[in-house]
Write the structure tokens for this entry.
Amino acid sequence: MSSIRVSVLLPVERETAQLGAAVEAISSFLDSAGFEHELIVAAAPAVDLAALPELVKRVKAEGGYGALLKRAVTEATGDALVVADPDLPYPVSDLGSAIAMIDSGVTDLVFGSSGKERRRTPLLLRWFLVDEVPDDRILLLAFTSAAAKLLFSEAKLPGAAIDLEVAFLANKYGFRIERLYVRSARRLSGRRRRSGFLLDILRIRMANRVMAYRAARRCPICYSAEVWTLAQIPHNLVRHCKRCKCRFLGRFWESEEVASQPSVRHPAVGQASPPDRRKTFERRLAILRREVASQARILEVGAGDGLFGRLSLGDFEYVGIDPSPGFAREGRARGTEVYCATLSGFVNTGPAFDAVALFHRFERFPDPHDALARIRDLLKPGGVLLMTAFDTESLLYLIGESKLIADYFRSRLVMYSRSALIELLEHSGFEIVSVGDEFAYQGHAALEDILRRTLPSLAALITPLLRRLPDPILTPAGSIRILARRRVGPGVNFAAIRSVEPTHAR
Ligand SMILES: [Zn+2]
């Protein structure tokens, strides 16, 4: 016996001869599969349900398919809700597959889809609405109870377009969707959604604009509610804030989870060789040398393998922290002062720092506001913050977004845009000194590898040109470098903010 309870919902708009047989087939299948279940038939007032077995719950509603479905969902008491076609044009075992997908926890919604090959959402729908919408030719949907209750309490359309509305809201509220491919026994044509769907899209869009739907969970960076699902990745999804252009995980990994993940390199950056990495870090160190006096006390958050610490030993009084005990041990073994600590847990026993450096570390903090407040506290007034981070507004990112996103978020929580980072720093008591693209040294071998992976069609053309350039060469890393200073008193340096093209109202 499975532990979950299943509600099967059958919306019946008009009399159908198959209904009795479908109810029978579904019920005996779920019995044999060991699911505790209930069947709910929601029918239009004219439909006669007298012949149905005693145990079937029946409800009536006026207004069409959408109204029937909403009514049925309010009646359902199961942990998993499955909406089935009263004609049952697919094997009844497909309902079992949909339930199993919900039960396994990999997804919140299942959209059944007919046809042998993957059927993509029509282009118009993708443009104006969302990427994932249910197949309009068959009716097989499954939901977790929580997803169904939220989505159908917000959905408003009484007709067939409620499917589109539910898909739209699933994206808005960050539910995961999986497709289930079913073999349909009958020839199918567009069933419920007709040519009028453009009008339906307009209705959904308008309802969203006038805030008829409950707001989604806000962006953790700028607190805007204009947050949408950008992509689904294993066990999670990536959300996208339209206001600040940041991407972040739908559900943040626990910090231990992130710490234990192997650090994944930006696929467009590649694996630089140790000498090339060293040169990149020397460039970063040179920036700090210009900003702070010799023998100043500096803190590196996320010391990693300790390369930066070793390079800075002659110049600065270096302290590093890293949440990984292995890195902390390694750093100390090599003569640098590295502690196993998180930013929030680190206790500074010495004087305040003259500078704090974070190289691609800021993206791992669940709360950027907290992290910056903490960094501010660790710095002297006038102290310097040097930070590098991937940038969603960089050209490299725009080219390679789809390829890099799943890898990137294995070990990080947020991907910032440069404008969001600048705004964050400004609001957190920092004055921007300079913002620029971050460059990294790359050898030819690493670059050729990146070319083959990201632009295979152009690799043959570019490789000979590349070989004429010095090895290694400085390449854009899809990242920015920000130098900021802890503000002593109030006052905002607007000149520095204006030097970066704004992407949203500040
Ligand atoms: Zn935002």
